[in-house]
Design brief:
The chain is mainly alpha-helical. Helices cover 79% and strands 0% of the residues.
Amino acid sequence: MIDFTATGLFTLAAIGLLGSPGPAIAALLAVGKAHGVAHGLRFYFGLQIGLATAAAISAVGFVSLLAAVPAIRIGMLIVATIYLLYLAWKIGTAPVSDGTNTVRPPGGGFVLAGAALGVTNPKAYVAFASLMATHVLVTGSAFNDGVFKWLIVVLVMIVVDIIWLMAGVALGRARLPAKAERALNIVLAVMIVAAALLAFA
């Protein structure tokens, strides 16, 4: 049996938690602005794979392992932070647009970069764990309850992340004066750096 009231509250909590700016959303904005729809969608697709994997791992109690073995969390933090700082540098120092794309794609490709960010982001695990630990949505089966929560979380991420990506693409398509575009690049870079530093909070 599905508790529809609890499901509605869970979905609202997931939208608020997963739709608020963080490392993944800052990266989506930046990639969408710098590389446009086609490459942005590749990054988005990889990110969804990584985040869905992180959500599934969280559902089976990986957060407890992170607490028990801090070295794993530190390693994940280092990987995610290095990528975010690299992305911030590439965006912040990118030449202003002259009608062509001058920002080089990430090493390994957009899908791999997105997946790596999604699966190594410790903040995502904390968010997923806090959601998974909330009210029971499906009574009578802990497994079915976990799967149902995972499906909701994945669907929420698919929707909110595409909105943020398209916002980044819209920023990239806006014909801004050179100074305004440079300022926007710097703001996006600062957002990414802030997201990387907050991972250590």
